[in-house]
Amino acid sequence: MFKALIVDKDDTGKTHAAVQDITLDRLPAGDVTVAVDYSTVNYKDGLCIGPGGGLVRHYPHIPGIDFAGTVEASDDPRYAPGDKVVLTGWRVGEAHWGGYAQKARVKADWLVPLPDGLTTRAAMAVGTAGFTAMLAVMALEDHGIKSGPVLVTGAAGGVGSVATAILAHLGYQVAAVTGRPETADYLTSLGATQIVAREDLAETVKRPLEGETWGGCVDAVGGAMLARVLGQMEYGASVAAVGLAGGANLPATVIPFLLRGVNLLGIDSVMQPYDNRLRAWARIARDLPMDKLDAMIQPATLAELPQLGADILAGRVKGRVVVDVNA
Ligand code: NDP
């Protein structure tokens, strides 16, 4: 028997989440069984702990879109018992049972060997949010970061915190946008050189072009803020669009693309090919200062997940929630 957070639907369609003891035979089919050490709380997890938001395919369900742990059994030659592994993406925790359990069974193709220099706890402090932040930074680098500060929106959240720490470590000036002024010291400790109040970017676009201010942007917020930021980018600069915490509609004009050559780069962490995953995890192990990572961690247990799921959807979580599934 092992512990898992099971989300189920009752006859009225209402979902309920509770920690239960279950047996290995209930896990879905897969080549590799992993003894999970840690998982995390991401925005999608908040949706999947609750009514699902269209993400969960079948109930009962175990959420947890990422995990790190040790291989317990493997039918695939690439993995042997005792190997440390990490998983993000592939709709695990949505269409397939995920990491909010002491055991998980998945396809070998979805796993990545834990990179040298990272513990399973550090890998999950990074988790899906941090992995995505790294992909965003790599996309900005590929397109060239200009001279101005790099803007990070939703900075006190998971993606924003890791993006801020990586960019600062790489030597860029980082302007961190937050709606929570009380997180200013935290963001400065991660390396932000400028704090921008959310309300300064909240007004909808009045002029399609404003002063050329930002040399690049990692955007976790989308919506009206992204539309506004597009008109403030330097000529030829890029925005890596990661999320929609502030809304899915983009009330923008095409002018920043036509007259400033701005690039809007979409970042998807879910379907990244294996080689890209390896490259991103190797860069994380190299370019993310581990002392900064410690400052981002909020520890949690399986029993605390229902509350934390609601917190992340309400934008109340700071940094990264790391779930010790064995605590
Ligand atoms: P968090 O909730 O940890 O962070 C989001 C942050 O956005 C909040 O902390 C808050 O930052 C800010 N925010 C929240 N609501 C609003 C609002 N209404 N207007 C403006 N800002 C707001 O989530 P994550 O960092 O884990 O994820 C961020 C987004 O990225 C989500 O939409 C998520 O689904 C997406 N995502 C996408 C991935 C991909 O593959 N493309 C992978 C991972 C995440 P502050 O308090 O500092 O203002």
TrEMBL record:
<dbReference type="GO" id="GO:0043957">
    <property type="term" value="F:acryloyl-CoA reductase (NADPH) activity"/>
</dbReference>
<dbReference type="InterPro" id="IPR036291">
    <property type="entry name" value="NAD(P)-bd_dom_sf"/>
</dbReference>
<dbReference type="InterPro" id="IPR020843">
    <property type="entry name" value="ER"/>
</dbReference>
<dbReference type="InterPro" id="IPR014188">
    <property type="entry name" value="Acrylyl-CoA_reductase_AcuI"/>
</dbReference>
<dbReference type="InterPro" id="IPR051397">
    <property type="entry name" value="Zn-ADH-like_protein"/>
</dbReference>
<dbReference type="Pfam" id="PF00107">
    <property type="entry name" value="ADH_zinc_N"/>
</dbReference>
<feature type="domain" description="Enoyl reductase (ER)">
    <location>
        <begin position="17"/>
        <end position="323"/>
    </location>
</feature>
<dbReference type="Pfam" id="PF08240">
    <property type="entry name" value="ADH_N"/>
</dbReference>
<dbReference type="InterPro" id="IPR013154">
    <property type="entry name" value="ADH-like_N"/>
</dbReference>
<protein>
    <submittedName>
        <fullName>Oxidoreductase, zinc-binding dehydrogenase family</fullName>
    </submittedName>
</protein>
<dbReference type="InterPro" id="IPR011032">
    <property type="entry name" value="GroES-like_sf"/>
</dbReference>
<dbReference type="InterPro" id="IPR013149">
    <property type="entry name" value="ADH-like_C"/>
</dbReference>
